[in-house]
Amino acid sequence: MFRKSLEQLSHSDFKELLSGRKCLLYGANGYTGTLVARKAHALGLTPILAGRQEQFIVPLATELGCSYRIFNILKAEEACEQLNDVDVLINCAGPFPQDTTAIIQSCLANTVHYLDINGDLATLVNVQRFHTKAQETGVVLCPGVGFDVIPTDCIAATLKHALPDAVSLSLGFEVHGKLSPGSVKTLYNVVANGCQIRQNGLLTPVPFGYHMRHFDEKQSEKMVTAIPWGDLASAYFSTQIPNIECLYPIDPEHLPWLKRLRWFRGLLKLPWLKKLAYLLISSRFQTPTPIERQQSATYFWGEVKNSSGLVKRASLKAADGYDLTVAGVLLALQFLLNYAGDGGYFTPSQLMGRNCVESLPNTSNIRITTHSLS
């Protein structure tokens, strides 16, 4: 599947792959974007660093010896002009807007492959709308090449392969570590947009606190509940399983508060309140340190069922979510620089294979077990 795993790549490998081609990293001044830029530099890459604010981009570009560009990627005219000589765009800006139309149209107009670290449901759905146009232009659109989409997408595809007639899919993850301000802002938007599941192939609104259940992971039962995560899009595109839910562990004591969200979440969309919330988040949340990331881990699991009651489960353990994202971005970039296939919209497992997550550093293999409801 891969010429080399990410851990095996050397300085010269990436230089050889990128020879004569340009990669632009947008949002390089953000927490994750900076991590990607530094890791790329360590591997011998000199991507073009880009963002909206020169005072944040220039110091990093100077330090790493990279060129830079300042523009607003949401303005189609600016984006088209700045991408006209680029081969691959890596979008690390966040929180992501739900409407990424201008970004994708700019990539299609300039025949630029597109990667991002987004995990937002509405954004993943919006990018997939351009599948046919991407096929026509030979452009690869692959959003979600980081936490949590790469692991959950690979689990979903692996479970579908193990149980082809599956009619339902549950996916879950658990984070042991700190969140950056950008990640907390993304969570704010998730809550404001409300909870959903996928029923009979369609995204269906449900109240927060919907479908509480216990999930037995390594003989340790956890109370979990549905969350409106991007896997409702990516896992569906990968597997076509009609009924999907995304789950996250919750302390039962917090359940009453969670259920109350249905009454006031609409207020969270008010522009002035959102702006205030963003300011508070930026002031109160600190980015995790390298040591904190090294000491953190993420856990992922999935479960499929068929109409006969057969159940298969899968799980894996991975590195801290930020380190996983950095590795995922560079793995996808490596793959695209070697890619000679058709254009279109791809999930990570569709583009790189259902086991691609196992190529990431500090990630276990996907473990599958078989169960029965009867």
Automatic annotation (TrEMBL):
Residue span(s) of domain Saccharopine dehydrogenase NADP binding: 24-139
Signal sequence extent: none
InterPro entries for the chain: NAD(P)-bd_dom_sf (IPR036291), Sacchrp_dh_NADP-bd (IPR005097)
Taxonomic superkingdom: Bacteria
Protein name: Saccharopine dehydrogenase NADP-binding domain-containing protein
Species this protein is from: Zooshikella harenae
